[in-house]
Design brief:
Length: 221
């Protein structure tokens, strides 16, 4: 059989796809809300479902966190909320290798934090890693990258929180960022510890995350 297994897409076609997606993004507007032209994450294409599953969530669990699928952008959309549940931005995650990997479609949030979760804060880079710590029983907070400014650090530690653990990805960017994040927390009256996971936290089992947190809390005591 000489039937080709893959369809060839030339550079012109790739450029057209990118232009179409930029046009869709422009049509979304700047209002801070989930775009209306989305599907439930359980109805996502295969790439979207695989990304959710690799990140440790079932499509149903992702649905409970408000994840949506945008067919026009071919991206998973993640609602970003603050500590009292206000919608502060919509984060789009590429699932087909296109750049950028993450893009904020609207809003300009500094972090994503679960509502009414007590206990020590565990700072992560991304939302799925924060959710992984939440599911392990802790207050996982995504700083949406590898930077944290001092004002945001003070805000995150308001309300009697006395311990903050930094758990960034164990790659070069994450390792270099730990010192900067620790410095930003310097103005806050909190005990700061550093968790050094062997992998991106969202890929680790719940029991391992619990062990990492407890070991660091014991070390801080």
């Amino acid at each position: 059989c000489r039937t080709p297994e893959y369809e060839y897409i030339d550079q012109h076609s790739l450029a057209e796809i990118a232009a179409q997606r930029r046009s869709v993004e422009q049509g979304i507007g700047t209002e801070v809300r989930m775009p209306t032209s989305t599907k439930c994450i359980t109805e996502a294409d295969k790439e979207g479902l695989l990304w959710v599953l690799r990140g440790g969530l079932t499509p149903e669990a992702a649905k409970s966190h408000g994840f949506r699928w945008h067919a026009g952008l071919h991206k998973v959309l993640i609602p970003i909320r603050d500590s009292i549940g206000r919608y502060t931005g919509t984060l789009a995650r590429s699932v087909d290798g296109s750049a950028p990997k993450y893009k904020m479609l609207n809003g300009s949030p500094k972090y994503h934090m679960p509502k009414n979760v007590s206990g020590p804060i565990v700072l992560t880079e991304d939302v799925l890693s924060a959710i992984a710590y939440n599911r392990a029983g802790y207050c996982g907070v995504a700083i949406l990258g590898t930077s944290l400014d001092a004002l945001t650090a003070v805000h995150l530690t308001e309300g009697g929180r006395h311990e903050v653990l930094i758990s960034l990805d164990p790659d070069k960017a994450g390792l270099l960022a730990v010192g900067r994040v620790r410095k930003a927390l310097g103005l806050s009256d909190v005990t700061v510890g550093v968790i050094r996971p062997r992998r991106d936290p969202k890929y680790l089992p719940r029991q391992e995350l619990q062990q990492l947190v407890q070991e660091q809390l014991t070390s801080n005591a």
